[in-house]
Amino acid sequence: MANPPTSIQDTPEKDADVGGIAADRLRSIIERVERLEEEKKALSGDIKDIMQEAKSAGFDAKVIRQIISIRKKEPAEVEEQETLLDLYRRALGM
């Protein structure tokens, strides 16, 4: 029969360091990321539903995604990209 632990170091604690790693802190971080991943999955499903709704209403989902991407950018960045796109099109005779 094993002797009972004689010091704090001998007792398994939830927040004890294991190999220099605070196990509770690590577990907390991992669980938080897992919860966020689940939320992200649910939000992705919601976005997919909205895009399907847009498509059903006659909108082009690909163009909607492009507009969303443009709205995230700074106006100067959008203008620069549009200028380059126009320049490249003219260079290709489009």
TrEMBL record:
Regions annotated as coiled coil: 26-53
Keywords recorded for this protein, A-Z: Coiled coil
Every GapR-like DNA-binding domain range: 22-93
Source domain of life: Bacteria
Molecular-function annotations in GO: DNA binding
Family: Belongs to the UPF0335 family.
Record-linked HAMAP family: UPF0335
Identification of the protein by name: UPF0335 protein C8P66_104175
Lineage: Bacteria, Pseudomonadati, Pseudomonadota, Alphaproteobacteria, Acetobacterales
